[in-house]
Each structure stands twice: as C-alpha cells, then as structure tokens.
UniProtKB/TrEMBL annotation:
The lineage of its organism: Eukaryota, Metazoa, Ecdysozoa, Arthropoda, Hexapoda. This is [RNA-polymerase]-subunit kinase. One of its GO terms (cellular component) is cytoplasm. It comes from Bracon brevicornis. Keywords: ATP-binding, Kinase, Nucleotide-binding, Serine/threonine-protein kinase, Transferase. Its EC number is 2.7.11.23. It holds the Pfam family Pkinase. Belongs to the protein kinase superfamily. CMGC Ser/Thr protein kinase family. CDC2/CDKX subfamily. Residues 1-148 form the Protein kinase domain.
Length: 148
C-alpha cells in the first residue's frame, strides 16, 4: 500500500488463475497431491482469518486464486466481516448458494467459522468430482440436495 497526494494504491501478487478455471479445464490433471495442497493452503489461509476474528463468507473456487507455482491465495473479501460478539447480528444472505451452509439456508443470523468450513468441504468435493457438488437451483432445492 502506498499513497501519493490524494491517491491510495494497492499492489498485489499476480495470480495466474483461480480454482474454478482449473476445475473446469479437463486438460489439467488434478492429482491427489494437487488437491491436498489446494485444500491445505485454503485451510491455512482460513486459520489466519479466523484467528483474527474474520469470516470470509464467500468462499468458492473462483475466489481461490492460484499462481503458476501452485501457490493459492484467498481473494474477494467483499463479504468478509468481523465476528465473535454475541450481540452482533449478521445477514444470512452471504456465500454463493452452492457453498452455503445449512444454517445460512435456514436464515441464521448468529453464525461463526462453520460457514467458511462448510464451503471448504463443498470445494473439496468439487475438486474431486470436477463438477459442483451441490448445485441447488433455489435455497429450498439446496437444502433438499444437502439432506438427501
């Protein structure tokens, strides 16, 4: 981060692609080692966020950025929020539906790290299957798919 006069500039690492592109590209071979690496890096990033009382609230393959060396970074913090206060009421309209936890689909206003962890599980399944794991067409359809 640096500033000049009234301008603020942010400089980020260049990331070549995201997990959504990798998952959809059948020309890319995803080994077990690749999948483990992506999930471990995601969990390490989440550990940092959660230890600092931050929920990402929009984890999905397209928000997990990957460079040519296989380094993964979590991106798009537009829905991120501090958590931990018992008096803080949150919106349940977060996370792309396919990665939304059951408590969010039921309209919970008090939630914590489980919403991010649920999304990681959905992403893991998607990495293994190469298709979205629970592609619900509505919130009700999403709940039905989860509990079937």
């Amino acid at each position: 981060v640096f500033g000049h006069k009234s301008n603020v500039s942010l400089v980020f690492d260049f990331m070549d692609t995201d997990l959504e592109v990798i998952i959809k590209d059948t020309g890319i071979v995803l080994t077990t080692a690749n999948i483990k690496s992506y999930i471990i890096q995601t969990l390490q990033g989440l550990e940092y966020l959660h230890c600092n009382w931050i929920l990402h609230r929009d984890l999905k393959p397209n928000n997990l950025l990957v460079n040519a060396q296989g380094v993964l970074k979590i991106g798009d913090f537009g829905l991120a929020k501090f958590y931990g206060s018992p008096n803080r009421i949150n919106t349940h309209q977060v996370v792309t539906r396919w990665y939304r936890s059951p408590e969010l689909l039921y309209g919970a206003r008090h939630y914590a790290t489980g919403v991010d962890m649920w999304a990681v599980g959905c992403i893991l399944a998607e990495l293994l299957l190469r298709v979205p794991f629970l592609p619900g067409e509505s919130d009700l359809d999403q709940l039905t798919r989860i509990f079937q």
